[in-house]
Amino acid sequence: MTKEKKKQLPLVVICGRTNVGKSTLFNCLTEKQQALVSNIAGTTRDSNLGIVEWDGSAFEIVDTAGIIDWHYLVEKKKFKDDIDSQTQKQAKKYLDEASLIILLVDNKTGLLLEDKEIALALKRNNQYKSKTILVANKVDNFKNASEAAQFNKLGFGEPFAISAASGLGTGDFLDVVISKIDKNKKNKKPVKSPEDENINVCLI
Q1: Could you report the per-residue pLDDT of 83-110, keeping only the tens digit for each?
Q2: Which residues does 144 contact at the CB level (< 8 Å), separation at least 6?
Q3: CA–CA distance, 23 with 69 (Å, rounded to integer)
Q4: How far apart are CA 107 and CA 152, in angstroms?
Q5: Nearest 5°: phi and psi at 83?
Q6: Is 26 left (phi over 0), alpha (psi -120 to 50) or beta?
Q7: Rounded CA separation 140/148 (Å)
Q8: Cα distance between residue 4 and residue 93, in whole Å
């Protein structure tokens, strides 16, 4: 795929607290082992970018570093020069540019304070709120899907249950992602330049 075509692709950003399986989901959807996967929190320091192709459509996806301080998302904290601050700055940059944001949570660990704080920060920013979907990861079988109902408290509706490790539910999930992207495209009003404005003249 050419660089020009990549630039035209919608951008989907995976975000969430550390250790919810963002890198595993990235590898699953891109069908590559590009992102380093580890049980150690904070393994992802630099964002990974890849291309996902599904059912005749394609989009660019970003695996961001785990959000460690929600204040960065609402611009209430200045970015410093240390590594943690710069990874948060990079994550925010991608969130600003995103066509769609995937807020990923861990169904096995359950709802944590960090999840609530990140969700609240996303909802405080109207730009983020309108393009965020909630996804519950680590749902090993559909019997455990009902446990994901606890994440309804985050205010983003019913979470989409998947297992990034096994691929369970990811096909249906990709259908949702594509439909959301297409819907956002239709709702987005194009910015007209002065050259685009037509002058109507009527002779009578």
Answers
A1: 666 777 888 889 999 999 999 999 999 9
A2: 107, 161
A3: 19
A4: 12
A5: -60, -45
A6: alpha
A7: 12
A8: 21
Hey, what are 171's tokens?
């096909």
* DSSP, res 188: S
Contacts of 37-44 with C-beta under 8 Å, sequence gap 24+, read: 41/66, 42/18, 42/66, 42/68
Tell me, what's the pLDDT at 200? 59
In the numeric block, which tokens belong to residue 70?
């929600």
Q: What is the DSSP string of 126-160?
A: HHHHTTEEEEEE---SGGGGGGGGGGGGGSS-SPE
> Would the pTM count as exceeding 0.85?
no
Name the percent of the chain in helix, strand, coil, to the closest 5.
Answer: 40, 15, 40
Residue 43: pLDDT band with limits 50, 70, 90: very low
* 3-class state of residue 102 by DSSP: strand
Residue 140 has pLDDT above 70, yes or no: yes
